Amino acid sequence: MDIQKAKQFIISNARPLELAWYRAVFEGGPKGAVVEELKKFQNPDGGFGNALEPDNWNPNSTPITTNDAIIHLYQCGALGEAGNIIEGIARWLKSGDGFDRGQQRWRFAVESSKEHPHAIWWEPGDGKESWNPTVSLAVFLCCVDGGERWKELVREAFSWLESAREVGSDEVKCFMLAHRMMELYGVTDVIDLDKAREAVKRAVGLAVCHEVEKYGVEYVAGPSAFFHEESPYVPEGIEDLVKADLAAIDKLQMEDGGFDITWQWYTPYEQEYKQARDWWRPRVTMEKLGFYLAFNGGESK
């Protein structure tokens, strides 16, 4: 990877939010700048919408977009500096909006998203909800609000993870975030954190794609999908997959220094998809850059 070229692509093309995120994570910039930019995507009800995640232009608050806001805050270390945002998120989550009481899960997709430009996966289906984003949202409430209801949900989630035979990559990332937040907030009365860490590592091993020829070409999860920094969740035996992913990054960096997305929307919003792709590319490039720096010793090709 040409590291400097990747950094310049991000600086030149990122939205103000992602640029502040980049500055905070890679340059030691102010975390408060991320908080201020993130506020622009928060609704009066406390939840998040408004194309924070570029694949979904629904202005209304949704669980998955609110979870994405938490990801932003965690990854740049700003959870402790976002008091008003945190209070709003907790208020919205406790309101029950977007929560399926029958399944006891926050919905991955909501009906109102169909009324706005979106990718096909944001149209609700009839199946059982996964733990994405429920486990990280429940842990968030355990950390900032407490409440036995959320603790029980977290215990159920990690109990399931310990014996799961199949786990989606985005679902695993929610478990990673959940475990990290419990460690960060010192929440030790819900689950055994050491045991849970091993369950997350095992889940990464289940979810990571072993067909290395698909890395960066198809929508599959190589190691770079999970790790954007040194991590305690790297399972044993994936060294060859890491090397393959690093090689794919070297090969697939584009002439402008950035990386492309590997998915289509499969909905009739061609112009909006093009805009979303432009928004996504700096974020994807940040993910590749973080992985490359962590697992390649920071050396460019």
List its traits:
mainly alpha, 2 strands, 301 residues, two-stranded antiparallel ribbon, single chain, globular, 51% helix
Outline the structure in words.
With 301 residues, the protein is mainly alpha-helical. Helices cover 51% and strands 1% of the residues. The protein contains 11 helices and 2 strands; from the N terminus they run αααααββαααααα. Strands 1-2 form a two-stranded antiparallel ribbon. Strand 1 and strand 2 (105-106) form a beta hairpin. Helix 5 packs across helix 6, helix 6 packs parallel to helix 8 (169-185) and helix 7 packs across helix 9. It is globular, with a radius of gyration of 18 Å. The relative contact order is 0.14. It comes from Acutalibacter muris.
Write the SSE topology:
Blueprint: H1 3-13, H2 16-26, H3 31-38, H4 63-75, H5 83-95, E1 99-100, E2 105-106, H6 134-144, H7 148-163, H8 169-185, H9 193-207, H10 239-252, H11 270-295
What is the radius of gyration computed over CA atoms, rounded to a whole number of angstroms? Answer: 18 Å
How big a fraction of the residues is strand?
A: under 5%
Q: How many beta-strand segments?
A: 2
What is the arithmetic mean of pLDDT?
Answer: 96
Characterize the main sheet.
2 strands, antiparallel
Broad structural category = mainly alpha
Stretches where pLDDT is under 50 for at least 5 consecutive residues are none
Q: How do the strands of the widest beta sheet line up side by side? A: 1-2
Work out the helicity level.
40-55%
Q: What gross morphology would you assign?
A: globular
N-to-C CA distance: 5 Å
Q: Number of helix segments? A: 11
What's the helix-strand series? HHHHHEEHHHHHH
